[in-house]
Amino acid sequence: GLLLLAAFVVHELRTSYPLLDVSLFANPRFSAASVAIASAFFGLFGFIFLITQYMQLVQGYSPLQAGLRTVPFAVVTGVFSPLSIAIMHRIGSKAVVAFGLTLMSAGVVMASTLDADSAYFGPVLASMVVMAAGLGLTTSPATEAIMGALPADKAGVGSAVNDTTRDLGGTLGVAIVGSVFASLYGPRIVDGLNGFPDQVVALAEESMGAAVVLSEQIPQGEVLLEAARSAFMAGFQAGSLVAAAATGIGAVLALLWLPARHRVTAST
Fold it and tell me: CA angle, corner 135, sides to 134 and 138, nearest 5?
């Protein structure tokens, strides 16, 4: 993957008609804002990947119930998104984006402290609200920074990069956080089911969902379910910390690279 990316960059630098003018990333405002967007969506998609499974498989909510319990996340994000622009005009994009990413990181760290019996109206909701506020503060100013770093005739490029960084960050978030989760869930549940038939262990190791279904079909179902919940939470907590680290790194890079104020309005 990295080799293909390097080959793409080399090709784009040499061709007369590049799909993506990678020289634009020499602009610190453009590149820092792109990294901020990518890290925000890394954290967002990694968190959503974990929390929705946590609600359904560990706490026993139906898909509809779990979906309804994520509505406050969308509401809080919607409230803070327009506020972020007003705040940005007063104090600049650097502070707003860095603070937003820091809030996102804090929210996911809060999520990493959840256990199987955490109350929704308590630590679960609190972690979502903090992260959603951070997301709302981050995305609009970072998007404005990407667009504002380019002349008007390159607005299409800015929009495309903005969308691409969101998709890239989200894809990496699910892939990496999911890999960390799986790397802990499998070994932990195997250890927790010592003495169980190999077929039962193999099925439970496939996924938490399989373990839940299996627990309803065997005499030692409660023991199996408890082992699965414990293994799930080990992966959940580690995956949450990875997502928190990604957004935290984004916050640091925003502080280091993202200028507070600068806008290009015409082609030079």
Answer: 85
